[in-house]
């Protein structure tokens, strides 16, 4: 793997609170790596440290294939969680300014602005004032600003928040296409379904510590046990007789049987009692969303949500 | 530095495309010109009320009439001069308005009293104008007493009180004398550079106040983090300071570009001759230092506010700092060597304008005070820039709320 960014043993404290307790991960070229975690887990702090907007107390952030020290800011694209644009300027002017700050040639930037405006259904909006744009349009312009200069590393903090499903799809496609062209993408999001669809690897963080780190498949193997969704009129006493079941959720005629780790689905199916009423039956792994909730609640995190 | 210049260019471009700024750019000199015309309109109307020229009847027997006529012409008194034989005894009061009688003869010269009769309604300036006749009359008197021309010149030379004349009896008194006479001859020599630098100072300082808004705008529009992904907080801060300095200079250029030709056209003040002198450079340098000091304060405190309209007490107080200078203007002008002037020279916020006024008004510069004052300003700039950098770095990312003084203090100590 062609590593672009290495974060090693990153620590950061605010007052007495340890926001990051020595986290380490790598981001490779051409991959989409998700950084996940509940609010206040330390995602944005990690990203801000990578961007040099904050400075870590200890640990290392290393950009590979860079000559010289420091952060190669012109090679990084960044879309922060809290974002906006100057209101009283034209779309073209602000995008050119952002490209200029990244030392990107302005004539080339102009070409790419037109290309992206067309791609994001904003054709003809280059001379529109930012304050006249809708929220979604403004989000698109911010996104264009972060990728205009052909960054090698693109950091997206909650890129889908506030977007309608159509725009989400457009963003998703563009992110995937950038990764396919070799851009390393570090993405933070709460939309687990999107992360699940897009990401190659993920890093889950809680209370400033690593909880999960690996490819999506590995994570699923490791954490996502099977569950069996059963439709039928079955009394709880009957369901409780079924072997190798961790817990059961009831919802009318629908029951969800959570199976323990290491189960082999087709062998487990053979153990089902004959008197079971089966109208419909699905067996699949639990989703990333459920893993997230599961891990968060196990650690009693959900009740502590708030802040970032 | 390159990034700072990019920010500066952006701020410049953004403001120059802003209609409010462009209108403001031209409206200030336009208001000045309007007030000038309004002023002259009112003074014209005043003139028509009072400027009926005085008719002055002269009864004299010492051959002084021609001298009076030439003084009247030189000083532009506008008197209508007439000789008269009417004896003094016949005049008890003057009924005709704007009329005066002067009785000048050897007897009156001996007594040093010139009998004068003025109508009740008269030019209020007339008594003052009469004083212009004293010196020539004294010369006539001196000539009559048989003094030589040289003796008369020596006698008539004005005596001036000059500070520090006891520093050696050699050549220095004459040089001081030369200086003071020179200054008396040409008050514009110090005035023009002083006013010029004063305009620059006030103009760029007030343009600098826009930095306040610009810094808090970064937070309001939530763009600070995007910008800071490309440059450092110091570069952003420096860029703003440079950008608004350039905007201030544009404002000054437009202001002076419009007003200077107007002033040359409408007044007899020898502006150009006195503008391009070395002291202008020094005065403009003081103006520049003043800008840097206030700009660093504004940019730092601006970064603590989420919105200019919601400025807290602390921020409001800081916004008032440049106005502090105006409080001391009165005492400094009335006594440029007084205690208020001296103390104000050492207080960072009042030092630039006080220094400028004092150097404009004083004949001999208190060099030690000037050096200390400039040192105070330069040191303040250094300190304020450092503090602003610390505040800006954290404050600019604190979206949605104004920083409290306690928080600001914490950032400074970090």
UniProtKB/TrEMBL annotation, chain A:
TM spans (from-to): none
Similarity remark: Belongs to the ABC transporter superfamily.
Protein's UniProt name: ABC transporter ATP-binding protein
Molecular function per GO: ATP binding; ATP hydrolysis activity
Domain of life: Bacteria
InterPro entries associated with the record: AAA+_ATPase (IPR003593), ABC_transporter-like_ATP-bd (IPR003439), ABC_transporter-like_CS (IPR017871), ABC_transporter_ATP-binding (IPR050763), DrrA1/2-like_C (IPR025302), P-loop_NTPase (IPR027417)
Keywords: ATP-binding, Nucleotide-binding, Transport
Protein source organism: Oceanobacillus sojae
Keyword Repeat: no
Pfam families: ABC_tran (PF00005), DrrA1-3_C (PF13732)
Lineage: Bacteria, Bacillati, Bacillota, Bacilli, Bacillales
Gene3D superfamilies membership: P-loop containing nucleotide triphosphate hydrolases
PROSITE patterns: ABC_TRANSPORTER_1, ABC_TRANSPORTER_2
Residue ranges of domain ABC transporter in the record: 5-232
Keyword Transferase included in the entry's annotation: no
UniProtKB/TrEMBL annotation, chain B:
Domain ABC-2 type transporter transmembrane: 19-388
Molecular function terms, GO-annotated: ABC-type transporter activity
Subcellular location: Cell membrane
Keywords assigned: Cell membrane, Membrane, Transmembrane, Transmembrane helix
GO CC, alphabetical: plasma membrane
Membrane association type: Multi-pass membrane protein
Transmembrane stretches, start-end: 21-42, 191-212, 241-264, 276-302, 314-333, 365-385
Listed name of the protein: Sodium transporter
Organism: Oceanobacillus sojae
């Amino acid at each position: 793997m062609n590593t672009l960014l290495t974060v090693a043993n990153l620590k950061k404290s605010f007052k007495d609170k340890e926001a990051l307790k020595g986290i380490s991960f790598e981001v490779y070229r051409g991959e989409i790596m998700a950084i996940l975690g509940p609010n206040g887990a330390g995602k944005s702090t990690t990203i801000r440290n990578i961007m040099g907007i904050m400075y870590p107390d200890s640990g290392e952030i290393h950009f590979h294939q860079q000559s010289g020290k420091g952060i190669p800011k012109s090679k990084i694209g960044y879309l922060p969680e809290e974002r906006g644009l100057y209101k009283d300027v034209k779309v073209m002017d602000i995008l050119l300014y952002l490209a200029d700050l990244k030392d990107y040639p302005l004539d080339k930037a102009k070409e790419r602005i037109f290309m992206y405006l067309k791609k994001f259904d904003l054709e003809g909006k280059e001379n529109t004032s930012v304050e006249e744009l809708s929220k979604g349009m403004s989000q698109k312009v911010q996104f264009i600003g972060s990728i205009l200069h052909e960054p090698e590393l693109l950091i997206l903090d909650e890129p889908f928040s506030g977007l309608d499903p159509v725009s989400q799809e457009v963003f998703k496609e563009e992110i995937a296409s950038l990764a396919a062209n070799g851009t390393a993408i570090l993405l933070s999001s709460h939309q687990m379904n999107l992360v699940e669809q897009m990401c190659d690897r993920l890093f889950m963080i809680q209370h400033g510590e690593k909880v999960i780190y690996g490819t999506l498949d590995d994570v699923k193997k490791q954490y996502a046990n099977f569950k069996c969704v059963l439709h039928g009129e079955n009394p709880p006493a009957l369901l409780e007789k079924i072997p190798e079941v961790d817990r059961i959720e009831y919802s009318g005629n629908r029951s969800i049987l959570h199976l323990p780790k290491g189960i082999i689905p087709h062998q487990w199916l053979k153990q089902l009692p004959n008197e079971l009423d089966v109208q419909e039956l699905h067996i699949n792994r639990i989703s990333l969303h459920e893993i997230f909730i599961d891990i968060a609640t196990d650690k009693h995190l959900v009740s502590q949500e708030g802040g970032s | 530095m390159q990034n700072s210049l990019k920010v500066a260019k952006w701020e410049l471009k953004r403001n120059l495309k802003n209609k409010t700024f462009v209108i403001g750019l031209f409206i200030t000199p336009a208001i000045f010109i309007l007030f000038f015309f309004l002023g002259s309109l009112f003074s014209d109307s005043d003139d028509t009320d009072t400027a009926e020229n005085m008719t002055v009847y002269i009864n004299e027997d010492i051959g002084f009439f021609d001298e009076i006529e030439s003084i009247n012409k030189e000083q532009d008194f506008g008197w209508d001069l007439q000789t008269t034989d009417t004896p003094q005894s016949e005049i008890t009061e003057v009924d005709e308005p704007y009329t005066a009688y002067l009785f000048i003869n050897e007897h009156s010269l001996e007594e040093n009293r010139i009998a004068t009769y003025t109508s009740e309604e008269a030019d209020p300036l007339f008594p003052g104008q009469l004083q212009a006749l004293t010196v020539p009359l004294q010369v006539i008197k001196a000539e009559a007493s048989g003094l030589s021309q040289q003796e008369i010149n020596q006698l008539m030379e004005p005596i001036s009180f000059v500070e520090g004349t006891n520093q050696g009896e050699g050549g220095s008194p004459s040089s001081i004398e030369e200086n003071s006479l020179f200054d008396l001859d040409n008050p514009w020599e110090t005035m023009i550079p002083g006013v010029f630098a004063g305009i620059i100072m006030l103009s760029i300082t007030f343009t600098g106040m826009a930095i306040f808004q610009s810094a808090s705008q970064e937070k309001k529009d939530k763009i600070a983090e995007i910008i800071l992904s490309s440059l450092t907080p110091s570069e952003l801060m420096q860029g703003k300071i440079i950008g608004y300095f350039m905007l201030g200079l544009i404002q000054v250029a437009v202001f002076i570009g419009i007003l200077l030709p107007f002033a040359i056209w409408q007044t007899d003040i020898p502006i150009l001759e006195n503008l391009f002198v070395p002291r202008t450079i020094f005065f403009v340098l003081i103006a520049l230092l003043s800008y840097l000091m206030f700009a660093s304060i504004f940019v730092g405190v601006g970064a603590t506010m989420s919105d200019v309209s919601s400025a807290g007490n602390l921020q409001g107080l800081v916004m008032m700092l440049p106005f502090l200078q105006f409080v001391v203007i009165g005492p400094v002008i009335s006594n440029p060597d007084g205690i208020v002037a001296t103390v104000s020279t050492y207080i960072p916020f009042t030092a630039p304008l006080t220094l400028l006024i004092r150097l404009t008004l004083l004949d001999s510069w208190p060099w030690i005070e000037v050096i200390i004052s400039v040192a105070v300003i330069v040191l303040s700039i250094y300190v304020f820039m450092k503090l602003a950098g610390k505040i800006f770095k954290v404050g600019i990312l604190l979206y949605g709320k104004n920083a409290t003084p306690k928080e600001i203090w914490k950032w400074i100590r970090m």
